[in-house]
Amino acid sequence: MKASEFLTKEEQEKIVCAIKNAELGTSGEIRVHIDETCKGNPRRNAEKVFRLIGMDKTAARNGVLIYIACDSKVFAIIGDKGINDVVPEHFWEDIIAAMGAHFTKGRFADGIIEAVEMTGEKLKSYFPYKSDDINEQSDEISFNG
């Protein structure tokens, strides 16, 4: 399946809306990227995509990538240096568990939306929204394959 066909247009719109809403409470930047396949470690692939789409270029280094490889049935969540320097070691585990619970039931969009919402909530306490905040990253889902 092509990565761009993994979600319906309606599901994609709901995810973009969730990203916009989540970012209203934080200066953090949240992105969703969908690949067709992942050869090797999904975290390493996510790190490559993170750099490729410029998420390591945010001013506060507070970007988060939710990475999914639809045909390989793997995913990862990674944060940039600014986040990783201040959050506890297992910061993403509850989000990964919630997302995985949805995915095992075939509810992929619901899992991504919950992950986005939870990410936004967690980032609020470390990176609250500032009145001069600008959206440094696209809210659109990126695809490869």
If you had to describe this structure to a student in words, what would you say it looks like?
By secondary structure, this protein is α/β, with parallel strands linked by helices. It has a single domain, classed as Roll (Diaminopimelate Epimerase, Chain A, domain 1), CATH 3.10.310. The protein contains five helices and four strands. It has helices spanning 9-23, 42-52, 81-84, 93-104, 108-126; strands at 29-35, 63-69, 74-79, 142-144. Strands 3-2-1-4 form a four-stranded mixed beta sheet, sandwiched between helices. Strand 2 (63-69) and strand 3 (74-79) form a beta hairpin. Helix 1 (9-23) packs parallel to helix 5. The longest helix has 19 residues, at 108-126. The chain starts with 8 loop residues before the first helix and ends with a strand. The model has no long low-confidence stretch (mean pLDDT 94).
Number of strands: 4
Strand order in space, largest sheet: 3-2-1-4
Number of helices: 5
Average of the residue pLDDT scores:
94
Order of helices and strands: HEHEEHHHE
| Poorly predicted ranges | none
Described by the principal axes of the CA atoms, the overall outline is globular
Q: Domain count, please report it.
A: 1
